[in-house]
Amino acid sequence: MSSKRLIIIGQVLKPFGIRGELRIRPFTESLYAFERSSTLFFDQSPHHVIGIRGHKGVVLVSLKGIDTPEKASELVGRLVKTEEENLPAKEEDEFYWFELIGMRVRTKEGDDLGEVVQIIPTGANDVLSVQGGYGEVLLPMIDEVVLEVDTDTGIIVVDPLDGMIPHA
Q: Domain span at residue 58?
């Protein structure tokens, strides 16, 4: 197995067709990470990629040695991973979701809001779902709210708009 960092990029939904293709729900905005991966990892099990194509909002993947629907069924439900180097390059102020999950969120005044547990895509902007002492706090990832993201310290500094933090 690879000693490089593996990043989750999807989940196997079900077999597709009679040749053992897998129907995968992508957790990526594009097929880039899939297309750059000569090997995909299903949980921790590596499989050599033969072919990848998009189809109606999912990714269809052919793997060496998986050539029947029965063999493909054995992978249903598994998380699909790739090596981090296969992800697209980021711009200066961009972050991968996996980098933000688990980070602590504090207001600019230093009040701890909790930990990022999920990121919700909305189309206009992503929304951080933060769990902590205030319950769930939803924060839009816009410049007016997210002031600083420090992946080295694991802290996101925010300035929530009025009404975003429920009062106890």
A: 6-86
